[in-house]
From TrEMBL, chain A:
This is Peptide/nickel transport system permease protein/glutathione transport system permease protein/oligopeptide transport system permease protein. InterPro entries: BP-dependent_transpt_permease (IPR050366), MetI-like (IPR000515), MetI-like_sf (IPR035906), OppC_N (IPR025966). It comes from Murimonas intestini. GO terms for biological process: transmembrane transport. Belongs to the binding-protein-dependent transport system permease family. It is a multi-pass membrane protein.
From TrEMBL, chain B:
The lineage of its organism: Bacteria, Bacillati, Bacillota, Clostridia, Lachnospirales. Residues 4-248 form the ABC transporter domain. Gene3D superfamilies: P-loop containing nucleotide triphosphate hydrolases. SMART domains: AAA. PROSITE patterns: ABC_TRANSPORTER_2. GO terms for molecular function: ATP binding; ATP hydrolysis activity. This is Oligopeptide/dipeptide ABC transporter ATP-binding protein.
Amino acid sequence: MSKITTPAMVKLNKKTKGRHKETGNTPMQEGLKRLRKNKTAMAGMIIILFLIIIAIFAPLIAPYGYQEQSYTEVRLGPSLQHLFGTDHLGRDIFSRCVYGTRYSLPIGLICTLLGLVIGGGLGLVAAYFGGRTDNIIMRIIDIIQAIPSILLCIALVAILGNGMWQLVVAITAGTIQGMTKNVRAAVFMVRNNEYVNSSKSIGVSDFQIMIRHLVPNAVGIIVINAVGVVATSILTISSLSYLGVGLVAPTPEWGAILAEGKQYMAVAPHMVYFPGLMIAITVVAFYLFGNGLRDALDPRLK
Amino acid sequence: MPLLEIKNVKKYYSTPRGLLHAVDDVTMNIEKGKTIGIVGESGCGKSTLGKTLIRMEDATAGEIWFDGQEITGMQHHEFRKMRMKMQMIFQDPYSSLDPRMSVYQLIAEPIQTYKLAQGKKDLEEKVFGLMEEVGLAKRLSNSYPHELDGGRRQRIGIARALSLDPEFIVCDEPVSALDVSIQAQILNLLMDLQKDKDLTYMFITHDMSVVKHISDDIAVMYLGQVVEKAGFEELFARPLHPYSKALFSAIPVPSIHNRRERILLKGEITSPVNPKPCCRFAARCPHAEDICRQTEPKLRDMGNGHFCKCHRAGEV
């Protein structure tokens, strides 16, 4: 007797092809699958990628140079020539915003990564070892926290001087204490789990326990925090620029554009709206992506 | 020579109220290939004893000799080699497995920790070999613990403990979190493994019917001390300590006609913080006399390998 095959069966076979491996998918594949299924995360990722592309091809996309001034076209509203309008010096805000991705994005990301490595590392060590180690680390962090972070940034910039890297150092210093506290709290919640004991009884080293068990289990909270820090870092650059200690004047950093626009908010609100919108879009994109990433990293959510 | 010799092991914790005597002066020998059952109520220090033996907790005093070597004084790098031979199976298979790791990763972890596999292929072979040994289907290797039932999860725990080819395994209530039907499967698995690999178990439990099933020797613990110790048949036939008697009377009998008298203990458990030098069971003992409240009894040899820590053992 020959096997019966119907069109529906063929279709089903095609659909489930590859799914019936003997051992199923590896954790990595499953994670990627979950991430791809998550629509908001994908939306966030697409926006971030889009912003990165803009940053790379800024000179090609921007219709004008970021410091090209035109005294006949001052504070014009949005039009076809100037999509986002012009500022008080007649510079094209759209072009400035496009160039701005080259500053805000990398600074935000680098500061967050550095803060995550340094602050997160400290928090992890503090929470895992506890006792005296915890006490020493946290008291140092408390001292740093006693200084308002914006003041700390200003002081550091004053010492180090103006410039992109100096700014990165200053902003990172401001993010470390928050990161340490958050990671410590997150790790505290998972470090007393029995599986940590189980690994200890096997003889897994402290470092391996931290990296393989504690970080993955605390990653949800850490990711959400990190994403928040990307956003605050971008906003800190803006505040610093506004205070005049950030990036120097013609640099088209979003916060700087926003700060300049503030004076003319009543007569030319577009000078504030558009750079503000860019910051908001970026922050939201990171939040969406961060949320999705957290879910993708958790095998219990399917 | 016994595989494990425990001499006067003590484990005290300092608390704001004083020293908590979790394990107080425990001495016993465990022969290779045998199972010693440790029974007692919650908080009597049986888990702490198990953890102290494999040095998850450091003993406050006493000696532990494993395979002719004293381990409590060992440096960490020296002990690393010994640790492979002493493993532990945990009580709760829900919380003792990292929820972020797949079955494969969980079983591979110990092997990777001690770099026992040559390359990916070898590791894979070893992991699948272990899975087969404990009765886990190969297709489950990429599943996560939360997708499996308690029995299967406990099998993962067993595979993790077995992966280092240990000689001695502390089973800390390995079946108490499981369904009764699955308890039997896991107990049978443990016994089969013992036969195949000549394993030595310390089986910690509060469930008398489980301990009856698996143990060669039984030690009854009360407030950190071993109060009675004997071969399993001897102890079940002739329990001497009043506490053991009460424990045995709590085993349910599967018959509606044979109703046994149950001994119900009254009174509070004595506090394990700074205990007075007297019989620790005296406050709840139905046969307590003045001597019990004044001096601490010794673990006396009652013949036939039967030891009992009671002033009035044999009298009542």
